[in-house]
Amino acid sequence: MSTYSKELEVAELAVQRATLLTKKVFHEKAKGTLSKDDKSPVTIGDFGAQALIIQAIKKNFPNDEVVGEEEASDLRDNHKLRDQIWALVEGTKLSDSGSEDILGGPIKTVDEMLDAIDAGNSAGGNKGRIWALDPIDGTKGFLRGGQYAVCLALMVDGDVKVGVLGCPNLPVDDTAPLTAESGVDQTDSEGKGVLFAAIAGQGATSRPLGTAGLEKSQPIKMKPVSDITQAIFCESVEAGHSSHGDQSAIAQKLGITKASVRMDSQAKYGSIARGAGDIYLRLPVSATYQEKIWDHAAGDLIVREAGGEVTDSLGNRLNFGVGRTLAENKGVVAAPAAIHSTVLEVVKEVLSKK
Ligand SMILES: Nc1ncnc2c1ncn2[C@@H]1O[C@H](COP(=O)(O)O)[C@@H](OP(=O)(O)O)[C@H]1O
Ligand SMILES: [Mg+2]
Ligand SMILES: [Mg+2]
Ligand SMILES: [Mg+2]
């Protein structure tokens, strides 16, 4: 077996299983939404997906740590919500029993489920094997009917080695270009659902999300951009998550005339990695916000392995080894390697004028 192939297999299957759970919640009107301390939303889908994925990691790699976005404290005294999540977790299995076996068997009790969720409490850092998990990235998109992603990455000594993104609402077809509609009013209808993956040094791939381990992955590559004015650039839907104003000024200076594609979650990284889009800009709106490692780890590797470069707004690589946040970085600039320096120059120019 080549390096990290076992980790990739477990990560892909765990993400695929978790998306079965999130898809069920996506189609429910009531998604069991709570407001967290920072006022951001979390749903029964986020908790359930985190439990299923951490269980699979701990069964296969008991000594590994996990930096997971969610924690179970709100559930320990909210039995109604806890039981709703348990019903989902208990009822979610991959249809292929061989794939289910690889994940190491079901969660047996409610307490085991809560403990699995809380096992995502690693402080992170640059020593040893640590997984970064975002059980639903783009929760606001998930609630609005936009894009969302189930995101998992393995870091070893602070470097991302394996990355997986499950995107239930993106087209399976790698060649379908992004349009203004790609991020709004989306669902997981026929032809939707893609799993992106990468191992450091071994390239990036995609495969249909619905088929567990049964379908072969295809290599993906970023699209060469010969004329930057024709580039498709992506940004968050939420104006509170990145500066639409700065991003539009940068696009304008680059001569880009097409409107941005606004899309929730790391579906943006997957989309540019397969050449459906070209550039992803995420410039800070707040001077104090620190980006979370689980919002970027998998996407960073997948884009770089597909021929892209990912830096912050100063041109530094994202540093995943300093804790649960990207404390040393500000913003994200992701583009094909051949045009990244051109984009970065304009980013610096626009930000320096502020
Ligand atoms: N002020 C802020 N600046 C940047 N990112 C923020 C933010 N507040 C929340 N986020 C993050 O933005 C993520 C969604 O990114 P996007 O806008 O690309 O969809 C959220 O992930 P979750 O949805 O997992 O909580 C959350 O972690
Ligand atoms: Mg969140
Ligand atoms: Mg997130
Ligand atoms: Mg999340």
TrEMBL record:
It is an enzyme of class 3 (hydrolase). It catalyses: 3'-phosphoadenylyl sulfate + H2O = adenosine 5'-phosphosulfate + phosphate; adenosine 2',5'-bisphosphate + H2O = AMP + phosphate; adenosine 3',5'-bisphosphate + H2O = AMP + phosphate. It comes from the Eukaryota. Its cofactor is Mg(2+). Pfam families: Inositol_P. One of its GO terms (biological process) is inositol phosphate metabolic process. PROSITE patterns: IMP_1, IMP_2. Converts adenosine 3'-phosphate 5'-phosphosulfate (PAPS) to adenosine 5'-phosphosulfate (APS) and 3'(2')-phosphoadenosine 5'-phosphate (PAP) to AMP. This is 3'(2'),5'-bisphosphate nucleotidase. It comes from Coleophoma crateriformis.
